[in-house]
């Protein structure tokens, strides 16, 4: 990939024939060595792809990503007739001819498919139901079915099937014609396919809930655990995100990204800004140097984003090495694997050097260099950069433990790479209207989280900020510094809130039913007390700060704030008649009364 | 309840209501073993290499390698089949430095020329909350001229659909643009009013509704709205070249050859072949003769290789 990126995408035509074969051979060698690396070190391959991981990040991703997919679909409603029906931009014959792939040959409007098996190559190529039929009634029916299947996917109902159906139906819209695509649509399509490979219904889904409920009520002596899932689809998602950023950063090769004016222009375009007044703000920010700096940071951060993957791998290695769980391998295998990595870098350096020789113009550089010198410089740079990185890291590790810990925590940490991304995308969303691009980009960060991080996020959400001086939270002297630090301290120093007490009867059936509540209690806010005065199967709750007990539907409603799975019922509580209904929905879910 | 009965309940309550959440009981660290592990590994390796090949520019010294790798992996077909076609030229190589709009006008049967207000210039409501895909499509019509003919055809059909079946005469396009002033100029005035910028205009090629393919409201849609059918031959269709068309063309050629053979046989019998015995029938279309006239499905922001024009790339 790096080698190809070294080749200028829009460079003037140059006769490369003298070295084309050599460069091709070098790149084949590089690819071969990269694959051979994992043959020599299969334990790394297993750790990279084949381990089982906590299903919660995948489950959360399914919900958030699914909501973005649904939002994007609903956003298409005003254009549905124009984009997809035969009363819109394309008559199906034209759309099929231009975008129907093999279908345009395999299917005839009057005579259908030539053979029944023609359907297989038709499906293998780009396929849209609308290439076969596109009258408004049909398109609206497919649209409704698509929204229903995406909703089922979000809820986790027959998750594998609903995901497959969602993928197929969503692509029926995207495969019809690409005229309406935006960057967000491409991210959506690509990750929906990866979602198809993921067992993302094992957490936060009705499928998982029904399975665990069944097991618990059937006599399980522990609250049934969530089943771990294969890590590889999530790792492919991480790789995909790294490719998106690295590719877009590398392709930003125009002058404006180097002279720092790119963001000024982007924010001043009629097609994007939220309000024309922003142009004054953008001009001011450019004048004080904020936008040029942001332009360079954006380009560097995007291009270097794959280092986030390196950082993750490094942190994992350090964690396991200190725990003594990192696999030991024979010295020869280790040495050979290092040699293969060196060969990959060597091949890239060779092609990079040749590229410099062909494309470098001696008159244009800031320093006078001949082509040979430019070639040597690039080749040495490609060789030296990883050597320098590895050497510096090893030196820090051996000699500077504090700095090493800082590098691991920050430079190699997700907080830097994802944190910058979150800020960048939020700023984009405030300043520009680019559809659901921002939402889908933030959604695809979720597969980078671990199960423990998702759990910590829920607990933080359900916790309270410690008071100044309470616990580990420092007490600052009043002043501007304290004002600045206060929001950060409120985020960093948290303590548990008072629990909701669930009073239950002592019989086994009642215990099992209230135990079901734990599967929905993501912030660990529930506390259970046996009370012989509570009737069997009844839900009785004492909310924090309240002395009276809530019973039945009122108890169910009282639990809404701490059970995220029921947050969608909040609007019901605003309507007087529906308030009790929301409580009863909670009771019914847990077979309580 | 007796004490003996309470004790098991109490243990159960401790286990179910107070014990830490249970872990997945399976102690197997790996998701797959044996053949399953091998098959999944092969798929992962394939997907990863295909993805890297697909997302790297096939240019310069990497061109031949990239092309051969794509050929071996058939990565283009794989990416299309999985709907993973992608290109990430967002604001690349530069963001646009001009605001472009396409004014769309129709010339009616009465000779009147009307602006259909399809461009967003001066017409967008601010704050701009709800994403306007039509604005993007309007800009794309300029960046990718090949979309202009189908768009004009739709304008003709839509006009006919909403005017009792009567099509307009012609659709005219005018490209309009304003240039974003460079920062140095904008700083001098601390910003600028985008609607005070000079509006440049350039008339583009127009399209006749009678002759542009698919610019006529077809009879099945006319029937939906109760319009009279088009006169015979008025609908300008496109050549579809389906399997049935090819089979029919082949059958026609075969029939013609047989006829020629029969004639030749008769003529040879008379000692002379007829003039023009070599058929002037066009050959049957084969394979890929019918390539798309419009851009193939693209990835990223602008579709295929079309991200960013001379001026720059979009979102």
Describe the 3D structure.
Chain A: Keywords: Membrane, Transmembrane, Transmembrane helix. Chain A: It is found in: Endomembrane system. Chain A: Its main location: membrane. The complex is a heterodimer of chains A (about 600) and B (about 325). Chain A is mostly helical and about 600 residues long. Chain A has 29 helices and ten strands. In chain A, strand 9 and strand 10 (about 550) form a beta hairpin. The radius of gyration of chain A is 29 Å and the shape is globular. The model of chain A is unreliable at about 1-5 (pLDDT under 50). Among the domains of chain B are: about 30-90, no CATH class; about 100-225, no CATH class. Chain B contains nine helices and five strands; from the N terminus they run H-H-H-H-E-E-H-H-E-H-E-E-H-H. Chain B has helices at about 5-20, 35-55, 65-75, 75-80, 135-145, 150-160, 185-190, 220-225, 245-270, and strands at about 100-105, 115, 170-180, 200-205, 205-210. In chain B, strands 1, 2, 3, 4 and 5 form a five-stranded antiparallel beta sheet that branches. In chain B, helix 2 (about 35-55) crosses helix 4. Chain B is extended and about 95 Å long. The chains are: A mainly alpha (about 600), B alpha+beta (about 325). Chains A and B meet through helix 1, helix 2, helix 3, helix 6 and helix 7 of A and helix 1, helix 2, helix 3, helix 4 and helix 5 of B.
